[in-house]
Amino acid sequence: MVIIESIVFFYFVYSVAYTAFFSISSFFYIVPSIRVVRPYLRHSHQRFCLFIPAYKEDAVIVETAHHAVHQSYPRELFDVVVIADQLQPHTLSMLRQLPIQVAEVEFQQSTKVKSLREAVGRLSSGFDYAIVLDADNIIDVDFLQKVNGLVSTKRYKAIQVQRRAKNHNNKLAFLDGLSEGINTRIYRQGASAVGLSSSISGSGLIVDFNLLKNYLQTTNAVGGFDRELELYLLKHGAKVHYYNGVYVKDEKVTDAHAFQGQRRRWISSQYFYLWKYLVPGVAALFRGDFAFFNSAVLRNVQLPRLINFGLLAAVTIVLFPFRNYLLFDYSWWPYLLLLNLIFTFAAVPRAYYSSKLIDSMKELPSIFFKMLFLLFRIRGANKTFIHTPHTINEPVR
Question: Do the beta carbons of residue 137 and residue 203 sit within 8 Å?
């Protein structure tokens, strides 16, 4: 019992300390300054290729492509490539009316990596950066202009931009957006503030074109390719920088079944890559590469935030009758629970502080148990492509 109590105690001390450190660090994040690149200074303009993988995304892909094309950036300096995987003929027809490239693909088992690898392989060289968007992502008209200003100033090789929720049309969507907002503050903004690598969201990623091309030739990832890509970039000296000066709008899940499928895929990929890179991650620590160790081990070893909080609350309650028999003073447990609550709420984006936050929190116990049961169903989830459907359009203004 002493060994079990010690493992559980130090795990929660670690997880709360990690949340506290990066939650506080996020307040010290400084938005990188960028220069305004005048249209006539063509040598300061980068060439971009926007990749939009679209697997059965007929409901949203046309509007997404419209927004991607309508940029204030010089049109000859960027291409938009929609990777059409099992789209309907009428959708393909509408896409081909736009000034974009439509790369039709067909696989026995579809994955994001396969789609990107196929599309990149069909392109000629000449691009400086690749931008990866999801089929539901919406970008503003000055997106490329701002990104170009950043890479022209800082010469970053990899950038994760902010993702904002496109919809809050029910409690689940609100909580999904809230969860991403907290993760952004801790794993992206907080990490960047202390000089570590930002985690990648899977979309809203700007990366050196050749680095992405080389990575795609080395991987067959089914789920969680973004986790492996971050580690690949770190191995090649390219830290991922977080930039909240520009954003993409991302659709949040509104259906409980889709939510569980998405979380099952995420949890499975998290622990798949934890075990795959555990030894290299620890070895990196001994070489003094703390950034790789953090991304490969420290971040992935933690349970999902809601499960962490629920289990910490449960342990605190269960141990109360045995408080006189514990190895560690019982008062630690309510303190840990309180600190976890404080620093988690400190990472909540200001936009989420509303009456809707209180109302939506009533759903947390139900979601906690659903996610807890998912821990017993993650086996094999990283070997199968689990699609999250999207349905919400945002017309071009």
Answer: yes
Angle at the Cα of 389 from the Cα atoms of 66 and 231, rounded to 5 degrees:
85
Token reading at 306: 């809601």
Q: What angle do CA 373, 375, 377 make, to 5 degrees?
A: 80
Amino acid at 52: I
Q: Tell me if 131 is assigned to some domain.
A: yes
Determine, yes or no, domain membership for 71.
yes
CA distance 104 to 54: 10
Q: Report the C-alpha gap between 312 and 267 in whole angstroms.
A: 19
Burial state string for 132-157 with b = 16 or more CB within 10 A and e = fewer than 16: bbbbbbbbbeebbbbbbbbbbeeebb
At 120-139, the pLDDT tens digits run 988 877 899 999 999 999 99
CB 197, CB 236: distance < 8 Å: no
Query: Could you give phi then psi for residue 173, rounded to 5 degrees?
Result: -65, -40
Q: Are strands 129-132 and 205-208 parallel, antiparallel or unpaired?
A: antiparallel
Range of the domain at 201: 34-168+195-253
pTM for the whole thing? 0.90
pLDDT digits (tens, 9 = 90+) for 232-257: 999 999 999 999 989 999 988 777 77
Distance, in Å, from the CA atom of 112 to the CA atom of 115, rounded to the nearest integer, reads: 5
From CA 32, how far away is CA 16, in angstroms rounded?
29
CATH of the domain at 117: 3.90.550.10
